[in-house]
Amino acid sequence: MAFDSEPSGISPPVAGILIAVISSFINGSTFVLQKKGILRSRDRGGSYLRDVVWWSGTMSMVIGQIGNFLAYNVAPAVIVTPLGALGVLFGAVLASWILKEHLNILGKLGCVLCCCGSVVLVIHAPKSEAVTSRLELEERLSDPVFVVYALLVVLLLVTLIVRIAPAHGKSNIMVYVAICSLLGSFTVPSSKGLGLAAQDVFGEGPPSGRALVLFLGLLGTLAVSILIQFFFINKALECFSSNMFEAIYYVTFTSTVILASALLFKEWTALTLTDTLAMLCGLTTVCVGVVLLRISQEALVTWKKKEAREKTD
């Protein structure tokens, strides 16, 4: 795909791709630095909230998300989103260097399959219909299909957080991954909706009461979702390797966001047979990659237990 260069400099799509690539590398370092900070604070017997390395990872997350926001505004999402897979691969390399987390051959293959499958899912996902007004957004949010989906997600999140996470979170990586990914069903639509609501709240003329309620509701939903997601990401990093968590999290987060957007913007109506088959292939590839990563994790845990027994003997 070629882009016509502009006399004034780099064309917007090319600039968006460059920003997305840089943001992917920054995002790839996020979990590694946070994990390093958690390990450093654990050795000292203090809180990771006082560790400078952990805070550098947190700032990397903020900068990376700002970069993603800029990239989505100057380049097509179908080009920008697949580049997020670069962060997963870079994170795996960085984790092997900084954290000494070395994936075996199954883990490396699983990581690559997860990235490839996610890219296929994003490329063939139905493109969102343009929502240009607050009234249209309110109509989409009140659609019965999306309301039922949102209620099911909330019910599932409550069950995971209250019942399943305390009992199985530290032994099963999918518990924390599921919580963080399901929250993506609210963070992304809320981010998109805030811009539309803000036009009526802060635009010319007296602000609309309904627009203000919608704006505050979306802002509150976004803030709560991000805070809960941030909390459980760090809970996961305390128990599991950063590169494995990042690979599985990237897959599940991308999948839930695609599903939520498809329901909210009624994108399934434009889904073709070819795209459907391609998405099924991508989903199958992702599932195989996740299974390989799980097998790799179990093998690593078994090896560490065996090594610990040999040291005690």
From TrEMBL:
InterPro entries registered for this protein in UniProt: EmrE-like (IPR037185), Mg_trans_NIPA (IPR008521)
Cellular localisation: Membrane
Segments passing through the bilayer: 12-32, 52-71, 77-99, 106-126, 146-166, 173-191, 211-233, 245-265, 277-296
Swiss-Prot/TrEMBL keywords: Membrane, Transmembrane, Transmembrane helix
One annotated GO biological process: axon guidance
Entry membrane topology: Multi-pass membrane protein
One GO CC term on file: membrane
Pfam families (UniProt xref): Mg_trans_NIPA
Keyword field contains Nucleotidyltransferase: no
Protein family (similarity comment): Belongs to the NIPA family.
PANTHER family, per database record: MAGNESIUM TRANSPORTER NIPA1, PTHR12570
UniProt name for this protein: NIPA magnesium transporter 1
